[in-house]
Task: structure prediction
Amino acid sequence: MENESFYNRFICAIIQPLRLHWYFRDNLNYINARRAEVGVNKIHDFRERANTLFLTDSFFGFEVPDAWPPIHQEIGPILPDTFPSLSSDLELFLSTHPRTMYIAFGSVMYTTPENYAIILQTALELINRNILDGVIWSTVKMNESELPLTINLSTGDIILTSNLLNNLHPHLYITKYAPQFAILSHENTKVFFGHGGVSSSHESIYTATPMLVLPIAYDQPGNAERLELAGMALKLSKLDLKVDDIISKIVRLLSEESFKTNAKRLQVLAKYNSKRKYRGADLIEIMLNLAKYDSIKNENGELEVNIETLLRSWITPNSRMGFFRGNYLDVFGAAVIIALVLISSLGYGFYKAIMFAFRKWSLKSRNSETFSKAKDE
Result:
């Protein structure tokens, strides 16, 4: 929000939290039910930090820096220790296509058939113009039956969509699922065209692959903005997707060295921070073990946990002091009042001194005039 208008900051700080609370109310009720089963008190807001150990799958560099309390621990990026390897077909395709773009929009989200058709046309245009020599597309949620029967290129050529889906094009490889991390790790994968989900973003950062991001929903627009601000990505709009815009941005990602440099800079942060997932596991183990000593038994013999007691080593005092005392508003308010009193007193004293000097001067002037008149007479 650093460079945003008052309106956007108001929406972000006030309206959006209310929307999120409404959208996720069922999830919150489910979590509270599970908490009650193990004797843990309820929470009322997903953003509540005061009495909740909050583990974040992120890291500064990708995440915007913020002053988080000790109870909020970054443990990301969380990446598996092992990944599926490339199939023989994909290995052969990548090894013979030194300028490959990988396209994937995750396993949950999907965009419109019109946008898919535009992306498919763009892939062919990039190959025909020799900007890329290969494209791999993991379609996952895309419904191929909704695509147009043919794709019309700017050269006037007409290509049957069925031929593309059956991998009859020598430079386009389409599959339902693909080993994404293995593809991104390959030296011939130059650009990742994705939706900006957090897992995909972390994998792209970890492999230093510049991204073209088409955010669709949830955290994806925010991730796209972070990636663009970090200098390793460019973003698109799902409401105004155009072939020429996609091509021009891919050309920039391929030709401007800054995108690869910034991706490598973030890669350093991701590789070191990825070790913190073990810290996250340790924190959970710590809480489970401390609960045995900080719990009490109810009348049914079941353990009940007081979160504020369990997490007392990490909960900052300001969370217990209330809004005014915790933010030192009472102290700052008193300081302002004292300053105003001092300034008013000094001002009043200065005013009285000026008035005293003025009266003395006036009296002296009158006496001088009276003396002059008497002398003249």
Summary: The chain has a mean pLDDT of 88. The first strand starts at residue 54 and ends at 56. The radius of gyration is 33 Å.
